[in-house]
Structure formats: C-alpha cells, structure tokens
Amino acid sequence: xxxxxxxxxxxxxxxxxxxxxxxxxxGEVDMFYIGDLLRACDLNPSEKLxxxxxxxxxxxxxxMKVADFLPMYAAVKKDKNKxxxxxxxxxxxxxxxxxxxxxxxxxxxxxxxxxGEPMEKAQVATALADLAPEEDEDGLIPYxxxxxKLCGK
Length: 153
Description:
It comes from Meganyctiphanes norvegica (Northern krill). The protein is mainly alpha-helical. The protein is built from eight helices and four strands. The strands form two sheets. A two-stranded antiparallel sheet has the order 1-2. α5 runs antiparallel to α8 (143-150). The longest helix has 14 residues, at 8-21. It is elongated and about 55 Å long. The two termini are 33 Å apart.
C-alpha cells in the first residue's frame, strides 16, 4: 500500500461524491466535472491545478472510473499551495492599517477580484454577501469573521 494513497475514510468520501456525479449509474463520471468532484470531496484546488488533469472543454468527451480519480484526489489533497486560515490571516494583516483586526471592505473586494486566481465581479459580490460581515461607518470589517466562514472554521 502506497503512503500517499487515500485513507479508507478518504476513499469513502471520494466514493460518496463520485456516486453523486455518476449520473447514469455506470460507475463512471464525466471528466468535465473533475473540478466540481474534487470540491465535493472537501478539497479546494485552483483552476490551474484542475487543468493539469486535462478536463475536456465540454461534456461527453471523456469518462473516468473511481480508480482513475483516486490518484487525482491524492495529488490535490497533498498540494501545499492551497493556503490555510493562518496563511490568510497573515496576508490580511498586511491590509490592517490600524492593527486592530480590521481592513477596508474595498481592499478585500480588490484582493478577490485582482490577485491570485481573480474572481469575476459577480463571484466577488456573492462571496462578500455570503461571508463578509457588515462594514462599519469607516468602511472597515473584521476580516477574521470573513476568513473563518471562508475556511469553514
């Protein structure tokens, strides 16, 4: 047994998610859904990482079995570039002008729409509406509330 092979618990999680995406019950999932499937397994791969697995640009071109997917799951799970709550806090501190755990909501909006893997305007609006606390009269928000919701803490 390889050390980086998914644990029994992870294999169970993968199988559960895989079955959901196996729309016709033939034990196969369309590779078009690989990013969605990885996210359904509680992973958060970048689009760049998902694209390394060669997902087709439309449905119906290439199917995969759970055995094909497990190594992809393992690779994404051990990817070190996903960032943790602690990593994100350190980044937010760079924007914390008053060193009191707050930042300008506008700067958070800028970060989400411009840095790393930029999000679309509509995605940013949804993320802020769902995750960010109400800004105060100075346009500041406590960023740890946003990060805790984002990271599921």
